[in-house]
Design goal:
The chain has 344 residues and is α+β, with helices and mostly antiparallel strands. The chain has twelve helices and eleven strands. Strands 2-3-5-7-6 form a five-stranded antiparallel sheet, with helices on both faces. Strands 1-4 form a two-stranded antiparallel ribbon. It has a two-stranded antiparallel ribbon with strand order 8-11.
Length: 344
């Protein structure tokens, strides 16, 4: 694929008018995947993605986009697709990402808007022809990225058999807690880099191609224990309680599920996610050369270890990490004390 191929294709399907003369494409920094995004100088504002079909499931992306739109979720409208080339022409929702808009004054309103959208996502029909199942195999495969990429490849520590057995027991516990939760549509990356602050009560939702049917607390923990933004624990606990009550009122939870159980699910779902992310961020650096993600590791470590030490069934993992892995961390160029990570 050349830039001219993409430009020619965009010109063929452009639904609006070119602004400022000739058609131009301006590269935009993309997500952690293989997609490359370009802004188009058009009215209405458009963006084109090159998503190589050998790496990206573009049919699934379009199906999920249509399902979100049908549910009233403002994901980018799709105007044209070339599945063979991996070209997707879509609405440009702008650049007001939550990450750049969040501060102590704006956080309450922005999170309320996001949680309202999350409720709508969780009330969507869990269509298994559109959304794959977030099953035990997938959950375990994700966590196995931690020993492979974070422990052995990044830290250079070779795990013994008994240590792998300890991790396997931990992973089984986290999987069990995930699978006992009510199953809903899960975005899987519902956080400040994938949400846009749009006018009024509207929220733009992007990077949804990995959506699944899975545990009800997954997206909430992605939002409130964001790998890129940290809020004080009392604020997080308050918002978890409020969302629990909203979910109960919306019929997403059975009345027998009390708030304490929901909070326990939230914590351990976050532990599963953050263990996975430690592996993913290490892989993004070591395999893909994306060193920027190393700077986010201390905050992810903080989430991981704070939760692990606060629950009886996971404190063994914390003790092992503290005695075996923590002494290796200061050798890493990216390391900052995880106990202060995310604090301004």
């Amino acid at each position: 694929m050349t830039g001219e191929d993409l430009k020619t294709w965009v010109g063929r399907y452009l639904p609006g008018q070119i602004t400022g003369g000739d058609l131009r494409l301006k590269a935009v920094s993309g997500d952690a995947g293989f997609r490359q995004y370009y802004r188009v100088n058009s009215e209405p504002p458009l963006m084109v993605a090159h998503a190589p079909p050998e790496h990206e499931n573009n049919e699934g992306f379009v199906a999920i986009s249509l399902a979100l739109a049908e549910a009233g979720i403002h994901s980018p409208r799709i105007y044209a697709v070339d599945y063979h080339a991996g070209f997707i022409l879509q609405e440009d929702l702008g650049d007001r990402l939550y990450q750049g808009q969040l501060n102590e004054q704006s956080a309450g309103g922005l999170y309320q808007k996001a949680e309202n959208i999350l409720l709508k996502i969780q009330q969507m029909r869990a269509d298994e022809t559109v959304f794959p199942s977030y099953n035990a195999l997938r959950l375990r495969e994700e966590m196995l990225l931690f020993p492979q990429w974070f422990v052995e490849r990044l830290l250079g520590y070779q795990l013994a058999d008994n240590e792998m057995e300890m991790l396997d027991r931990l992973f089984s516990q986290l999987i069990a807690r995930a699978l006992e939760q009510p199953r809903v549509v899960v975005h899987r990356d519902f956080h400040s880099r994938n949400l846009l602050d749009l006018p009024g009560e509207d929220v733009g939702v992007i990077d949804f191609q990995d959506a699944v049917i899975g545990p009800c607390t997954y997206d909430l923990v992605s939002l409130l224990r964001d790998c890129y933004v940290r809020w004080p624990d009392p604020l997080v606990r308050e918002r978890v309680g409020a969302f629990y009550r909203q979910s109960l009122a919306a019929g997403l939870l059975q009345k027998g599920i009390d708030e304490q159980r929901y909070r326990h699910w939230f914590d351990l779902m976050g532990l599963q996610r953050h263990i996975k992310v430690l592996g993913i961020f290490a892989r993004l650096y070591l395999r893909d050369g994306k060193s920027g993600y190393l700077n986010d590791l201390p905050l992810v470590l903080r989430y991981t270890l704070e939760v692990a030490r606060s629950h009886n069934e996971t404190v063994g993992f914390y003790d092992w990490f503290e005695s075996v892995l923590e002494p290796l961390l200061p050798e890493q160029s990216w390391y900052r004390d995880w106990r202060q990570a995310g604090q301004s």
